[in-house]
Design brief:
The protein has 6 helices and 2 strands. By secondary structure, the protein is mostly helical.
Length: 151
Amino acid sequence: MSFSSTSRVDYTALKVNQSFIIGLLVLAFLFDQSWLVAFVALVMLVGTVWPQAGLFKRIYSDLLRPAGLLKADPRPDTPAPHLFAQGMGALVLGVAVLAFAVGAAATGWLLAALVIVLAAVNLFAGFCAGCFIYFQLARRGIVLNLPFWRA
């Protein structure tokens, strides 16, 4: 997948987003609050469909960065794979919410744990499983891009 030399992604924003996802889902599990899983799923879905409205990224760009607590780390990249990965996470959490709704709490927590683990691997090891899937699909001619995903 190629991207233009002007296309950039702020990796600090990605890390803040991943940190919020991990932190809130861990809290949801520790305090047995499935509604918090639904909240994170909704935030991820909104941030996937309308990236500028993603709550966790807004907290970074409107509060943390202006306060000097975090510094931007823009890198040449395209946002589409990262947004696709976030959408996949939102989908998995959506299924988790459905599992909670039908009384399959163990399944719901396992799905939430999967999102925690994959977000943590991305945050700490720099491997984005959803991005990998995005690129594998693109290699096979399946390119998934929403209009708002263009940098």
